[in-house]
Write a structure and sequence with these properties.
The chain contains twelve helices and seven strands. It has helices at residues 2-24, 28-40, 43-52, 72-79, 100-104, 132-141, 185-190, 204-215, 251-268, 270-294, 302-309, 315-332; strands spanning 60-66, 83-88, 115-120, 146-150, 167-172, 193-196, 240-242. Helix 1 packs across helix 2 (28-40), helix 1 (2-24) packs parallel to helix 3 (43-52) and helix 2 (28-40) packs antiparallel against helix 6.
Length: 333
């Protein structure tokens, strides 16, 4: 048995070495396989990300978020140059997804300069799936210098993208709600750029004006801090741009704004600070998932839960007891 286990581990490591080498060389097939690994999760996925992580950090990651029907997929298609991760809602029963974002970008599939991957949310909240960050790492390591991450499009709770993207683009459209669906302050506040898509529609000028007015009501952004912690330069003011992605109008101005935001992040020092916040949030989320996974075996807690059911122990005290025991088991490893 031990020999079979060692042989299996050797095979996995050989596959990992080959996959990592081919992915770093730019193989689309290796990239697709690697993304399947990270979506499936497990030790081999973690090992692959660990192997490739030192080779990341070159890509500009742009998050596209906004209300359903705002045209995020069409905008991603118009912007697409290298890598697109589109997150689709999934069935709570089968875990599968319709992958409508992929269908809307189907004409780009044969473009060798564009790689598109749809991922199912698999029950994750916040607009992104759990494998999205690992998927971005793989695209980055594969040499994709612009990575578009399109969120599922569920509304104002959809703010996880700010913990993954260097630049967050919030997409609105005329006629989808009273006084702009931008009344959702959570989405307003995370935006680095605002795009009013389908700007050829009636009411687009009104939507643009309302957005600009609403942005003036938000608390002023903090100025970037210098090495000594003192303010250094002016804060970034999110531009509000009109575009018609289906007609590919306004795309050049949007690309210029994306490049301008990345230039601002670099010159102001905000890029390093934002990256530190992003990786901190990612590590914390992974730790939370690991704890949840360790606690997902009800048999280990049955006796304590029975005590709660008999009202001998409060739910809070039971939860703290479980965490204490988890910590003891972890320290013994």
């Amino acid at each position: 048995m031990r020999g079979e286990a060692e042989e299996g581990a050797t095979t996995i490591m050989t596959d990992l070495d080959t996959l990592a080498r081919e992915l770093l060389a730019g193989s689309t097939r290796a990239l697709a396989r690697g993304l399947t690994w990270v979506e499936s999760g497990g030790e081999r996925a973690e090992a692959l990300v660990a192997r490739l992580y030192p080779r990341t950090g070159r890509a500009h990651v742009v998050g596209l978020t906004g209300a359903p029907g705002s045209g995020k997929s069409t905008l991603a298609r118009a912007l697409a140059r290298v890598g697109v991760l589109a997150v689709d809602p999934s069935s709570p029963f089968s875990g599968g997804a319709i992958l409508g974002d992929r269908i809307r970008m189907n004409d780009l599939v044969l473009d060798p300069g564009v790689f598109i991957r749809s991922m199912a949310t698999r029950g994750a909240l916040g607009g992104l799936c759990r494998a999205a960050a690992d998927g971005v790492d793989l695209l980055d390591a594969a040499g994709r210098d612009l990575i578009l991450v399109e969120t599922v499009g569920v509304g104002q709770d959809e703010v996880d993208v700010m913990r993954l993207a260097h630049t967050v683009v919030v997409v609105s459209v005329p006629g989808l709600g009273d006084d702009v669906q931008a009344l959702k302050a959570g989405l307003l506040e995370i935006a680095d750029l605002h795009v009013v898509n389908k700007a050829d529609r009636e009411g687009a000028d009104r939507t643009l004006g309302e957005l600009r007015s609403m942005l003036t009501l938000l608390p002023p952004a903090e100025s970037p801090a210098g090495p000594d912690g003192a303010p250094a330069g002016e804060p970034w003011v999110p531009p509000v741009l009109g575009a018609s992605a289906a007609r590919e109008e306004g795309i050049e101005a949007l690309m210029d704004a994306l490049d301008g935001h990345m230039a601002y992040l670099k010159t102001s020092g905000e890029l390093d600070r934002r990256w530190r916040r992003m990786v901190g949030a990612r590590v914390l989320k992974i730790a939370q998932e690991l704890v949840a996974r360790r606690l997902a075996h009800p048999a280990a807690a049955d006796a304590d839960v029975d005590r709660v059911a008999r009202r001998e122990l409060s739910p809070h005290a039971c939860a703290r007891l479980l965490l204490t025991r988890l910590g003891e088991r972890t320290s013994d490893v």
